[in-house]
Amino acid sequence: MPKATETLLEIDLNALNSNYKYITSKIAPSTKMLAVVKAYAYGNDAVIVAKELETLGVSYFAVAYTNEGETLRNASIKTPILVLHPLPVNFETIVNRCLEPSIYSRKTLKEFIEFAENHNQSNYPIHLKFNTGLNRLGFNHNDLLWIAETLSNTKSVKVKSIFSHLAASEDLKLKEFTQGQIKDFREISEELIAKLGYKPLLHCANTSGIINYPEAHFNMVRSGIGLYGFGNDPEENKHLKPVATLKTVISQIHVVQKNQSVGYNRGFIAETVTRSATLPIGHADGIPRSYGKGKGWVTIAGKKAPILGNVCMDMIMVDVTNITCEEGDEAIIFGPSASAEDLAASINTISYELITAISQRVKRVIRKN
Ligand SMILES: *Cc1c(COP(=O)(O)O)cnc(C)c1O
């Protein structure tokens, strides 16, 4: 890859291909793959990622919000798109753009049916979301009878899938809890299928669910983080390749004398002569202030350069006292050679939060051999 001459988020489509193949190798050929491309495909670029996955033969996409689905339709994505978190105000766009809503409550089911009937829809695909322990979105087991009765009174919608979401599929200490969720989901779907008289698709596994719970694959799996190269597990990470590399360049180098300071509010005070490199990336680009004062770092010439003082809106200063480098040299924030998981862990967060936060002002570049 060419050296960065400004701040760039490189999106490696070969890595995406390789991750897709690895994850699909974990599921039966008859199991469908849904790719989660919410939040700009986890901070990358939803359209470019979705187009690539479409050529690989993905069965479904999921986004969180309706406008994210609209963006994909505007880019001529034809694959079915599940909207995980629609609100009644979005129903018109959902139907106009052939998006498929997750229906998670009595209110959303009633209002969607009303909307679909008023717009002369028949068998409009909906996805029923059940809460099996996350207590976030979803019907409960005791809504089953009401759902079946409500659906039997309309031809406007058809249940395309029944699904749930695991709360802790990456945490094997909570295996019993997860197995309980899977069991509940199995029971709920069996009961509902018996009442509906037809078999919608069943799905409940996210990336770590795919890896840790083969018994939870059902008819489809939903992968997000794995496609972008993180497996929530060091063993799995060996098989996955980070899709995103965030890199920048050294704008200026300062030699800071003893007792001089660096950055706002004198966040760093030099105890000895310190070489400081200024980089054009800051909290407005998605590097939170909590990485400041030595918690976070960048990699320059293969060495860790800790952040000096406070993160500014558009810049950070890093310690290059012991690194041979000059103005114009490249600095890597994260990528295949500088783990986003490790960097995120330095401020007690997870790769998901770091990669999805890279702001839209950072230029995206696509790499594909
Ligand atoms: C975000 C999300 C996923 C993807 O989870 P990963 O851990 O990134 O694979 C799957 N299902 C639902 C309902 C989600 O919200």
TrEMBL record:
Organism of origin is Aequorivita marisscotiae
Q: Which family does it belong to?
A: Belongs to the alanine racemase family.
Gene expressing this chain: alr
Residues the record lists as binding substrate: R136, M313
| GO terms for MF | alanine racemase activity
Q: What is this protein called?
A: Alanine racemase
User: Which pathway is it part of?
Assistant: Amino-acid biosynthesis; D-alanine biosynthesis; D-alanine from L-alanine: step 1/1
The cross-references to HAMAP family, in alphabetical order and at most eight, read: Ala_racemase
Catalytic residues, chain numbering: K38 (proton acceptor), Y264 (proton acceptor)
Q: Which UniProt keywords apply?
A: Isomerase, Pyridoxal phosphate
Pfam families xrefs: Ala_racemase_C (PF00842), Ala_racemase_N (PF01168)
